[in-house]
Design goal:
The chain is an alpha+beta fold. It is 21% helix and 45% strand. The chain has a 6-stranded antiparallel barrel with strand order 2-3-4-7-6-5. A hairpin with a 4-residue loop joins β5 and β6. InterPro entries: Pyridox_Oxase-rel, Split_barrel_FMN-bd. This is Pyridoxamine 5'-phosphate oxidase family protein.
């Protein structure tokens, strides 16, 4: 077995898939993540403060790329974390379709508006967008004997 294969095998032992329930738990315990979708055929990633509920990730937006290109688009939302003490990291990804629920009157939109996130960025963000989840996945990695790689 070559060095690369040994490294991959050792690394896989510390990798564990998270259940959907664990993923939603991690999503619910944080409030800053990244939403990604195509803008003029180019992938764009935006940091957003968010809330979760009703099977969706909710975030606010001012007029601009998120408001113009987001609604109706398939998108991906991601958060991650690292515990230096335990040497454990995790990542959660939500894939789905973005809806503008600012004025929507359906039951899901009414429920989501009660969870209004509070953006840290300055300015008025009156538009309320929801990434309605189609897929939720996550993984945890690390543990005893795992050393965090140095930043580049």
């Amino acid at each position: 077995m070559d060095e690369c294969a040994r490294h991959q095998e050792a690394g896989d032992r510390g990798l564990r898939s998270l259940s959907e329930s664990e993923c939603w738990g991690l999503l619910g315990s944080h409030d800053l993540g990244r939403i990604a979708f195509l803008v003029d055929d180019w992938p764009q990633v935006f940091p957003v403060n968010y809330s979760v509920g009703e099977g969706a990730v909710l975030f606010r937006s001012a007029p601009g790329a998120k408001a113009t290109h987001g609604p109706g688009s398939r998108a991906c939302f991601e958060i991650d974390g690292w515990d230096d003490t335990a040497g454990i990291g995790w990542s959660v990804m939500v894939q789905g379709t973005i809806r503008d629920i600012t004025e929507a009157a359906d039951e899901q939109a009414l429920g989501l508006r009660q969870l209004s996130p509070h953006p840290a960025a300055p300015g008025i963000r009156h538009l309320l967008l929801a990434l309605v989840a189609s897929r939720v996945s996550g993984r945890r990695f690390g543990g005893v004997g795992i050393v965090r790689p140095l930043p580049f």
